[in-house]
Design a protein that fits this description.
The complex is a heterodimer of chains A (about 425) and B (about 250). In chain A, strands 3, 6, 7, 8, 10, 12, 14, 16, 18, 20 and 22 form an eleven-stranded mixed sheet that branches. In chain A, about 55% of the residues are buried. By secondary structure, chain A is an alpha/beta fold. Chain A contains ten helices and 23 strands. Chain B has about 250 residues and is of the alpha/beta class. In chain B, helix 6 runs parallel beside helix 7. The radius of gyration of chain B is 18 Å and the shape is globular. Classes of the chains: A alpha/beta (about 425), B alpha/beta (about 250). The interface between A and B is medium-sized, with 23 and 29 residues.
Chain lengths: ~425, ~250
């Protein structure tokens, strides 16, 4: 029904077999099988109705090399200026870290996934691929089948980071049609506390696609602040795209504040799943997306309340300009045992052009009877009275539009709780609205 | 300074202003009074450039320039200021950031460099005193959760910051208690000088005890039906608007 028969010559059995012989893993085989079984979804697939992939997938010409990678000079400068500047940084090019490990404090390990397989085999074995399901999830399956490297972060019991951890992921798209695979595994042990930022950029203007899979495990009493930032056109208009699938798992009394800011990218699909795996978890999902000319940004989230007494709050805002398209699909699942769940969802959208588009679909599936849940979605234009008020004080139309748009974004951005990061995003929004 | 000639304006096809003539010189305060629905606020909105209204006839000259050709912000840059009857609440935009942008956009239009941060703060402090505005208000979002009195004081505070040539006060007295009214009037009287002018739109004579006008005009059904001195306001207060209406019909 939803399977799309698509022949992408470079994504073939041979590639899989090579990787399997290089780094054998039973998960690879089952995942490859699952990928072949599900195939790429067409727009007839319920979860991909508004996000046609065919044109993007057709442009794939080459799989990114697994050899060592280097960073183009122009990207280096930008990277050095990215907030948070003072952070433990790991840089990836096409999914592969440019160094195997990063010096941090003793309590934190920040290294390549490949290196981690040698140093932390037990932790990898007990967590890798345990949360990101590959059945009926094509991109997860393909990711797990072709994973060769990525990032591993281990936060020791009761550890605290004095600086944020910053994962900087670069798509090197100087060549047309590069497909890359990246993988992130984060294990926050009991009582650990950390602020993690992940910034995605690209180096050139050509089409590239990254399939990113991430698993984030937040154990008992651990607290994670996470900022995912996608800004592929930071160095000039870029066709770089990403399909980002991540699973956050919250254990007892744990906390996660996950903010996604999608600034630019030809096609961005975020599948953010948060699972409440034990009691008393608290999870926040904030999002801001700004699709502009020829950009499509699709946020698909699943908040899965499997256990009682948990709290979730989801708040996403979209700012659509030119012919930009936004998609918000937020599903809250409250399972039978998840009594006393509090789950809230809100999606608000600003359409700044007649050609802009938005599809919003909140979904609530509740199987427990003692819960508090709510959801709401709105979309509209800038308030005319507010525009008139600002202009009547001498503020030009464009400047007034910027002020009001930044104000609209503010209640999501205030969640960054990091001044540098907040200011940087404000500046980017202003830049984006200046065209 | 301002000359309105045979101004006709309509909203959604309905004519509200039916031929207004008014001349305001520098140094003057004009009061425009009239019953509800007479077109007072429409006149204020048309002067400021609100797009809901269509000017169907007539012209407005401001210092010899055609005001109707100017964008909303250009009118402000040229020295027009409208104190809103209902100031808009704008969440997420702090009053101080808003004002700084407004001041700098006006300076930019005049070819001036942005104001120095410390000069801006000093001016702000001085002007805030004028309307006895709490400094906490300026760090809050613009008008958000302000009381009616705070909003009106904020309007006069903005006026003091922007130093317009012509200020139009649209029912600034509505919803104000006597203390707030006194503060607002004090602000206006302090700002008044021989180079600027005010148009004070009000329903009641009360405000005119504090802001003393040079001329009073009565607007009724989209036309100025009577003009006079301050004395006219007292007569109106005593006899009501029906008196003017009747008199107009009889003449």
């Amino acid at each position: 029904m939803s399977k799309q028969v698509l022949d992408i010559p470079v994504l073939n059995e041979k590639l899989f077999a090579e990787l399997q012989s290089l780094a054998p893993n039973p998960l690879r085989t089952s995942s490859w099988k699952n990928f072949l079984q599900s195939g790429f979804p067409s727009v007839k697939h319920e979860e991909w109705r508004f996000t046609p992939l065919e044109n993007s997938l057709k442009k794939i010409q080459k799989i990114s090399s697994s050899d060592s990678v280097s960073l183009p000079a122009e990207a280096e400068k930008i990277i050095a200026s990215l907030e948070p500047i003072d952070a433990f940084k790991i840089i990836l090019v096409n999914g592969k870290p440019i160094s195997n490990s990063v010096n941090t404090s003793d309590e934190i390990s920040l290294l390549s996934l490949k290196e981690a397989q040698k140093n932390f085999p037990e932790i990898i074995f007990s967590h890798f691929g345990k949360y990101l399901t590959t059945e009926k999830e094509t991109f997860n399956a393909l990711n797990t089948a072709l994973t060769n490297d990525g990032v591993f972060i281990h936060l020791k019991k009761n550890s605290q980071t004095e600086k944020p951890i910053h994962i900087i992921s670069v798509q090197d798209n100087r060549e047309e049609g590069i497909y890359s695979t990246s993988r992130i595994l984060i294990v926050a042990e009991e009582g650990a506390k950390a602020h993690i930022v992940e910034t995605h950029i690209s180096t050139a203007e050509k089409f590239s696609l990254q399939n990113l899979g991430a698993e984030i495990i937040v154990k008992q009493n651990a607290r994670i602040e996470y900022h995912l930032i996608q800004h592929f056109s930071l160095l000039g208009k870029s066709e770089a795209s990403v399909i980002d699938s991540r699973q956050v798992v919250l254990e007892k009394d744990s906390f996660c504040n996950f903010t996604t800011v999608s600034m630019s990218g030809a096609l961005i699909r975020n599948n953010l799943h948060m699972l409440f795996n034990a009691q008393n978890g608290e999870g926040h999902l904030y999002g801001l997306y700004l699709p502009s000319k020829n950009e499509l940004m699709d946020n698909h989230s699943l908040v899965d309340h499997a256990m009682p007494n948990c709290f979730s709050n989801e708040f996403y805002k979209g700012i659509m300009t030119e012919n930009g398209k936004g998609v918000f699909n937020g599903k809250i699942m409250v399972r039978k045992d998840a009594q006393k769940t509090n789950a809230y969802q809100n999606n608000r959208n600003l359409l700044l052009s007649d050609d802009a588009g938005l599809n919003a679909k909140p979904q609530l599936e509740i199987f427990a009877d003692d819960v508090k849940c709510s959801h709401g979605a709105t979309s509209g234009q800038l308030d005319e009275d507010a525009m008139f008020y600002l202009r009547a004080r001498g503020i030009g139309e464009l400047e007034a539009k910027k002020l009001l748009t930044l104000a609209f974004a503010e209640d999501v951005l205030v969640q960054t709780k990091h001044e540098g990061l907040h200011n940087q995003i404000d500046k980017w929004i202003e830049e984006k609205l200046s065209y | 300074m301002l000359e309105i000639r045979n101004l006709k304006a309509s909203v959604e096809g309905k004519e509200i202003l039916k031929g207004i003539n008014l001349k305001v010189n520098a140094g003057e305060i004009h009061a425009i009074m009239g019953p509800n629905g007479s077109g007072k606020s429409t006149l204020a909105s048309v002067l400021a450039g609100k797009q809901d209204y269509t000017v169907t006839d007539g012209e407005i000259l401001f210092e010899g320039k055609n005001l109707l050709d100017m964008k909303i912000e250009e009118r402000a840059h040229n020295g027009i200021f409208l104190a809103f009857q209902y100031p808009v609440e704008i969440p997420g935009v702090s009053t101080v950031n808003f004002l700084k942008t407004a001041v700098n956009e006006t300076r930019k239009a005049k070819g001036l460099a942005p104001i120095e941060a410390k000069d801006f703060l000093a001016t702000m402090r001085e002007k805030m005193k004028l309307v006895e505005m709490d400094s906490k208000l300026t760090s809050r979002a613009l008008n958000e959760g302000f009381s009616g009195g705070e909003k009106k004081r904020n309007e006069v505070f903005q006026m003091a910051m922007l130093e317009p040539k012509l200020a139009i006060l649209d029912e600034t007295d509505s919803g104000l208690d006597i203390d707030a009214l006194r503060i607002v009037a004090h602000g206006v009287n302090t700002l008044r000088n021989k180079n600027n002018a005010f148009i004070v739109i009000t329903h009641y004579q009360r405000l005119l005890d504090y802001i003393v006008p040079d001329f009073v005009h009565v607007l009724s059904a989209g036309k100025i039906v009577k003009s006079g001195t301050k004395q006219l306001a007292f007569e109106l207060e005593e006899k009501g608007y029906d008196w003017v209406k009747e008199e107009t019909v009889n003449s």
